[in-house]
UniProtKB/TrEMBL annotation:
Renumbered residue ranges of the record's region Disordered: 132-151
Originating organism: Streptosporangium amethystogenes subsp. fukuiense
Domain of life where this protein originates: Bacteria
Chain ranges of the AMP-binding enzyme C-terminal domain: 424-502
PANTHER family the UniProt entry points to: LONG-CHAIN-FATTY-ACID--COA LIGASE, NONRIBOSOMAL PEPTIDE SYNTHASE PES1 (EUROFUNG)-RELATED
Alphabetical list of Pfam families matching this protein: AMP-binding, AMP-binding_C
AMP-dependent synthetase/ligase domain span: 9-372
InterPro entries, sorted: AMP-bd_C, AMP-bd_C_sf, AMP-binding_CS, AMP-dep_synth/lig_dom, ANL_N_sf, ATP-dep_AMP-bd_enzyme
UniProt lineage: Bacteria, Bacillati, Actinomycetota, Actinomycetes, Streptosporangiales
Protein name in the entry: Class I adenylate-forming enzyme family protein
């Protein structure tokens, strides 16, 4: 049977209806049956509005139980959810809608006017009422909606992810490939053990919930949600990450593992408080490379081992470490992990030729997870070729199938686990009357890994200095989500360009590393 992404939830609701499947940070809980009831109500509402299998549905919602019900409801109705960041402003949501073509958007009308994006709106109250009705009832008079079995190539989800140029792009991932990737991680975390019926037995009720800290518009957040149900764990959901939430929820629920972005590791390591993480046995980090020194500082402070996981929305789970690897001495410093069993990976040169062990090149992974980009956003590079998916990352593999990253061929800036696209920022800044020419690159930052820095050629007669730099930062902040905004500005007489006229971004990054902070730089902390 091909797995719909909601089939695990349905199986839990049928086999263990009274077990808690979802806890919100405010203390509200839903059993597996209640989650299934809420999702069924959402599915019926979407179908009643004329949506048919294969239709796309935008979900412009904050991290919340309502977003969980919205995702599951779409899958039950055979629809394709398109989660959009609750941090996006109106123009960014409209751009997402234009790229992906949803037939409806689920949102709070107070944040998104009904006629604002050109497609019908299903009000948030409909989803909220479904959740509260289900939570307040022991059962339902209406039979649950059963999700259809998807075809091998059926879209299961559209995720906004990165490209080498231009605006954020939406990648279409399949039900089957996403479930297969999740199973790969589960087997790795469970020492190779695989359930006979495709679903692991529920853990004992004394086992703590999995704390989901990543947003559900993020591939890592959705994977955390689905993974928890797949391996029989309860989900503990928060609106957003903060050290205060960690300090409050981890001791209360005796959370025993954390899935973090490097930025979160930084915040926990450098907070003046000392959150009680005594119940935590391991931390899994993904999203971008974790600085080895920061890893050591975290482990020394909290006495918790930190392991890495390499993958992406396009690739799925590719490589990583688990506790057994560390105990048995297989862990290698500087690597991102051992390639998971069942994952086919090649290192290829610029001509597409497979490289020998130890040779550097671009990482390609054979995967059924992604169908490719819905909108190339001006990026002509092919994502999928004959079942192989390109990563855009440069790395190498040693004789033990351990993967190392060297750098990225793409120009995407990874800041705090989120992806920022230079072209989008450059387009915004070019609209400022003081900007004659502009290039944005990622520069190193102790906390966020990288932050966007703008190198600006000012218009003739413009006074370049701190005041203008601060004005340009504010210009970005007013027009883009906070995490995408330029954090630093430097003024230059001209941008370095190749003979073909292309900006030499590597030269800007190199010049930034050698320059000292001066009056013409504006710096802002997150």
């Amino acid at each position: 049977m091909r797995r719909n992404l909601v089939h695990d939830l349905e199986a839990r609701a049928s086999g263990s209806p009274h077990r808690i499947g979802l806890i919100h940070e405010d203390g509200r809980t839903w059993t597996y049956r209640q989650i299934d009831q809420a999702a069924s109500a959402v599915a019926r509402a979407l179908v009643e509005h004329g949506l048919t299998p294969g239709s796309r549905v935008g979900l412009y919602l904050a991290n919340s139980p309502e977003l969980v019900f919205g995702l599951a409801g779409c899958w039950k109705a055979g629809l394709v959810p398109v989660p959009m960041s609750g941090l996006y402003n109106f123009d960014e949501v409209r751009s997402c809608v234009a790229k992906t073509g949803p037939d409806m958007v689920v949102a709070d009308p107070a944040k998104l006017p009904e006629d604002g994006v050109g497609v019908p709106l299903l009000p948030l109250d409909v989803v909220r009422a479904a959740g509260e009705t289900a939570r307040g009832s022991a059962g339902s008079d209406s039979p649950p909606v059963r999700a259809p079995e998807p075809a091998e190539e059926d879209e299961g989800l559209l995720l906004f992810t990165g490209g080498s140029t231009g605006m954020p792009k939406a990648v279409a991932v399949t039900h089957s490939g996403t479930h297969a990737s999740m199973s790969t991680l589960a087997r790795a975390q469970k020492g190779g053990r695989q359930p006979e019926e495709g679903l692991y037995a529920l853990v004992d009720e004394s086992v703590p919930p999995n704390l989901v800290l990543l947003p559900l518009f993020h591939g890592g957040g959705i994977q955390s949600l689905l993974f928890s149900w797949h391996v029989g764990r309860t989900v503990l959901l928060v609106e957003r990450f903060s050290v205060d939430r960690i300090a409050r929820l981890v001791p209360r629920y005796r959370v025993d593992n954390l899935f973090l972005l490097p930025t979160m590791v930084y915040d926990l390591t450098h907070t003046t408080e000392r959150p009680d993480l005594s119940s935590v046995r391991k931390v899994l980090v993904a999203g971008q490379r974790l600085d080895p020194e920061l890893k050591t500082l975290f482990e020394q402070r909290f006495g918790v081992i930190v392991m890495s996981n390499y993958g992406s929305a396009e690739l799925g789970h590719v490589a990583g470490w688990n506790a057994r690897d560390v105990r048995e001495g297989r862990w290698k410093p500087g690597s991102v992990g051992r390639i998971y069993d069942g994952v086919e990976l090649e290192i290829r040169d610029e001509d597409g030729a497979s490289q020998q062990t130890g040779r550097q090149g671009e990482i390609w992974v054979k995967s059924t997870r992604t169908k490719g980009y819905v909108d190339t956003g001006g990026d002509g590079a092919s994502l999928v070729e004959n079942g192989w998916v390109r990563s855009g990352d440069i790395g190498y593999v040693d004789a033990d199938r351990v993967l190392y990253l060297v750098g990225r061929s793409r120009e995407v800036i990874k800041t705090g686990g989120f992806q920022v696209w230079p072209g989008e920022l450059e387009g915004v800044l070019r609209r400022h009357p003081a900007v004659a020419d502009i290039a944005v690159v990622g520069v190193a930052d102790d906390r966020l890994g990288e932050v966007p820095k703008a190198f600006v050629v000012p218009t003739a007669g413009t006074a370049a200095g701190t005041a203008l730099a601060d004005e340009l930062v504010a210009w970005c902040r007013e027009r883009l989500a906070h995490f995408k905004s330029v954090r630093q500005v430097a003024f230059v007489d001209a941008l370095p360009r190749s003979e073909a006229g292309k900006v030499q971004r590597a030269a800007l990054v190199a010049s930034d590393a050698s320059r000292s902070s001066g009056a013409n730089d504006s710096k802002e902390s997150a």
